UniProtKB/TrEMBL annotation:
Any Gene Ontology biological process: antibiotic biosynthetic process
GO molecular function, one term: hydrolase activity
Gene3D superfamilies assigned to the protein according to its UniProt record, in alphabetical order: 1.10.1400.10, 2.30.120.10, Glutamine Phosphoribosylpyrophosphate, subunit 1, domain 1 (3.60.20.10)
Alphabetized Pfam families for the sequence: Penicil_amidase
InterPro entries (alphabetical): Ntn_hydrolases_N, Penicillin_amidase_A-knob, Penicillin_amidase_N_B-knob, S45
The protein's name in its UniProt record: Penicillin acylase family protein
Length: 467
């Protein structure tokens, strides 16, 4: 990139092209108006320049690339009469590109990975690529009729939990950022169990939202149980896992021991692949990049351990059991040092909590108690349907959870239920700002109101007069 007489240009295929520059006035409360500049190239808007302004990083995004018809689609969705119409109406959906499921009262139901997904080089998935080389260009979008979809499958149900849906034969690159199979697999197991018993109703579906058994925990503790400790204190701590089924229950000690063990297991394996410094950086990074790669790697480690494949076993260990013994000892020593010898203090509820922070609380610390929603101890982790992913930066604080939990009863819409982690109002002064959180943490739900007669009986009228 270069600036010639105040005009920005960027290089593409050996030629210099003009940058589209715009400026905007941004009014700031109790401060001076700021002038904001934007710079757009054929590869999207520039996010940052290097120190001498000779290179820049741009970000191309389908939602801002051209006119976004998403809001028109929402109106069409509301007017859809059946599943076929709903699916076809997704043709204009732009962003977010996500898993979308739907059903109708005729008994038809389906899934589509909706959105405008650009066709691009697979290397674009991993690192920033040279914007001046056309081989990394977008080549249109994945055709709508070739987006992944499912309709009325023979097994009688569809499961999606942010996991990868298309198989390896799917011709287009969609994303690398998929959740491991564990949540979807556990949901599938629960659904099949209900179907085998011949009973599946709204309560059954709601119960699946509360599912807190971790498949990785079951795999790792199966190996931990094989260890014969000479030290009695470690044998006593091992007992918390021997009779444990992998339930990430907030009232249990086992989830804390397992989570610390898994953190150290990841660190040891990655240190063997790279080095301890890089492993520390990867395990303690924030944001979405390194944690996303760590999640993928960690799932791979679990699958190898489950098959007793020692390809990732670090040097110096004879087998997984010898490694597990060392890591279990280190994990317990750490927990004793941090929480003490009172094992009740190790319960998952004491270390696995939400810490929601309002975006303005740092600017107005004197109001943080009113701005920040309440904290809760919750069950589950990032591998359970009851999603409560935690951070390694300040382990094991909850940093990711379900945006909402829904249960739609198509046969009786008024029997539908929902809940959100905080409340239905974004105003910190509202009584509905965080009132649902007290129900949400205990896996409770509230009724949806569909029928007009139900709405008119329960509504509250609020009139806000303009001053």
């Amino acid at each position: 990139i270069r600036n010639i007489n105040g005009i920005w240009e960027y290089q593409y295929e050996g030629q210099w092209e003009p940058v589209i520059e715009d400026s905007y006035d941004l009014s700031v409360l109790n401060s001076e108006t700021m002038e904001i500049h934007s710079y757009k190239t054929r590869n999207g808007y520039i996010l940052s320049f290097n120190n001498d302004n000779t290179k820049a990083i741009s970000f191309r995004y389908s939602a801002t690339e051209e006119f976004n018809t998403g809001f028109n689609v929402i109106r069409q969705m509301i007017d859809s009469k059946n599943s076929d119409q709903m699916e076809n109406n997704m043709n204009g959906w732009v962003d977010p590109c996500n898993n979308f499921i739907f059903a109708d009262t005729n008994g038809d139901y389906g899934y589509i990975n909706r959105g405008k997904v650009p066709v691009r080089n697979l290397l674009n998935a991993w690192v920033p690529v040279p914007g001046w080389d056309k081989k990394y260009d977008w080549n249109g979008y994945v055709p709508f009729n070739e987006l992944p979809r499912i309709k009325n499958p023979k097994n009688g149900f569809i499961v999606t939990a942010n996991n990868k849906i298309p198989d390896e034969d799917y011709p287009f690159y969609l994303s690398l950022d998929s959740a491991p199979e564990y949540r979807a697999k556990r949901i599938t197991q629960r659904i099949k169990s209900h179907l085998e018993k011949g009973k599946f109703d709204s309560k059954s579906m709601l119960a699946i939202h509360s599912e807190i058994i971790s498949i990785p925990a079951q795999i790792l503790t199966k190996e931990i149980k094989k260890i014969n400790f000479e030290n009695l204190s470690y044998s006593e701590l091992q007992k918390y896992l021997i009779g444990w089924d992998g339930s990430m229950d907030r009232n249990f000690v086992a989830p804390t021991i397992y989570s610390e063990f898994r953190y150290r297991l990841n660190k040891e394996i990655i240190s063997g692949l790279l080095d301890s410094d890089k492993a520390d950086k990867m395990l303690n990074a924030g944001g979405r990049g390194a944690p996303g790669h760590l999640r993928t790697l960690s799932a791979r480690f679990i699958s190898y351990i489950d098959r007793n494949n020692t390809e990732y076993l670090p040097n110096g260990y004879e087998n997984w059991t010898s490694l597990f013994e060392q890591i279990f000892i280190e994990s317990c020593d750490y927990l004793i040092n941090k929480y003490g010898n009172d094992i009740d203090l190790w319960k998952w509820e004491n270390v696995h909590k939400t810490y929601p922070v309002h975006i303005l609380s740092n600017l107005f610390p004197e109001l943080s108690d009113q701005l920040n929603p309440p904290k809760f101890s919750i069950s589950g982790d990032g591998d359970t349907p009851h999603n409560a992913g935690y951070s390694n930066v300040s382990r094991f604080d909850v940093v990711a959870t379900s945006v909402a939990r829904y249960m739609f009863d198509i046969a009786d819409w008024n029997n539908s239920r929902w809940i959100v982690p905080l409340g239905s109002s974004g105003h910190p002064g509202s009584k509905n700002y965080a009132d649902q959180g007290y129900l949400w943490k205990d896996d409770k739900v509230i009724k949806m109101q569909y029928s007009w007669d139900v709405i008119t009986k329960n509504y509250q009228l609020q009139i806000i007069k303009k001053k």
